[in-house]
Structure formats: C-alpha cells, structure tokens
Amino acid sequence: MKKKRWYDYLWIYTPVYLVLGMFNILFAWLGMIEFLIPLGIALFGGGKLFCNQYCGRGQLFDLLGNRLKLSRKKTPPRFLSSPWFRYGFLAFFMTMFILMIITTVHVFSGAQDLKQAVTILWTFKLPWQFAYHGTLLSPGVAQFAFGMYSIMLTSSILGFVTMVLFRPRTWCVYCPMGTMTQGICSLKEGK
Ligand code: SF4
Fold first, then answer.
1. Which residue of 16, 61, 150, 151 has the fewest C-beta atoms within 10 A of its own C-beta?
2. CA 59 to ligand 1 centroid distance, Å
C-alpha cells in the first residue's frame, strides 16, 4: 500500500473550513488560501501541482465518492468538459467574485450596511448572524468573509451534487480554479 504523506490528509481542510464558518464567519478569510496558493504555484512554474497533490477539495470528493461509495460513478455529461462551458463558468464565477468585492468596498466606505447572510448558488440567502460576533476592524472585513463563505459553500454544494450524480471528481472538470491554472499553464507553454 502507498505510504501516506502529510498532503494526503488535506481533505480535512474543507469540512473544517465549513464548520468554522458556522461558529465565526471571520474564519472564511482562510478561503483565500485556496485562491492564492494554486495561482501562485501555476504562475511560478509549478504547473498543476496544486490540483495533482495539494487540493483538499479534490481529495475530499475522491474520498466521499470512492472510499465511502457515495458516487454513482456515471460518465458526466460531455458539455461539462467543453471549453465554452468551463470558460463560461469561470467568467460567471469571476463576475460574481467581482460583484462580491464591490459590495465589500461599499460596506467599507459606509455606503451600504453589512448583510449578515450567506448566499448559496448565488440565489438563496440564508440568515447567518449567529456566526457574526463583531469585529474590531471595519464591517467590510466581515462582508468579505460572508461573500467568501458563500463562494466556498456554493462550490462545495455543486461539487458534492456532481460527485453523487457522476464521477467522484466531476467538480474538477469545471472547477474555476482548475480552469484558471490550466489556462495559466497553457499560456506559459505558449499553446
Ligand atoms: S480542479 Fe479544482 S477542485 Fe479539482 S484539484 Fe484542481 S483546484 Fe482542486
């Protein structure tokens, strides 16, 4: 049996992250790790190392789908892996991310009040004030955390549903971070 390495346990990160965000939303800032590290690795020559080795989310879906047999292991629909869908989903994801930053800036400037809610699937607002206990900093810091947690929860739900319906790592087929790092690698290789 293959010897386990420390990074084989990174799947713990996603459930711990989601649980921490139910106790104090400010922990949601930790989600930036999952944004900055893969981009940094891809930009500085590591290629897809993050996806292949260090992505806890990918490991988690693998574990749930294969080890716990929660996946039907069906072939995902072809459109999910098509460039138009992957890049379209990335563009949509980035647009929503930018809108989240704009809301955060408005709260920082005082033009808008803090909304203590988590939005799932960019549509459904869940009251989340139980996880906000104030901050010594600007309420904008908390607004960013609510937005970041919404993104992480939404992507976890999408990943979980497609893990159950199709193959365990179906999320990886259209994951915006995977598409971005793939795009960076292609650009660097001049493809
Ligand atoms: S495609 Fe996304 S979820 Fe899959 S391993 Fe890469 S970063 Fe992780």
1. 16
2. 9
Give which of 182, 170, 7, 147 is closest to 73, Cα–Cα. 170
Task: Report the C-alpha gap between 191 and 183 in whole angstroms.
Answer: 9
28 in a structural domain: yes
User: Does a structural domain hold residue 175?
Assistant: yes
Q: Global pTM?
A: 0.94
Token pair 């809301």 is found at 103
Residue 52 falls inside a structural domain: yes
Q: Which domain holds residue 28?
A: 6-188
1 in a structural domain: no
The DSSP 8-state label assigned to residue 188 in this structure reads: H
Q: How many degrees, rounded to 5, is the angle at CA 125 between CA 129 and CA 11?
A: 80
Q: Domain tally for the chain? A: 1
Mean pLDDT of the 74-78 span: 96
178 in contact with ligand 1, CB cutoff 6 A: yes
Q: Is the pLDDT reported for residue 188 higher than 90?
A: no
Is the CB of 41 inside a 6 Å radius of any atom of ligand 1?
no
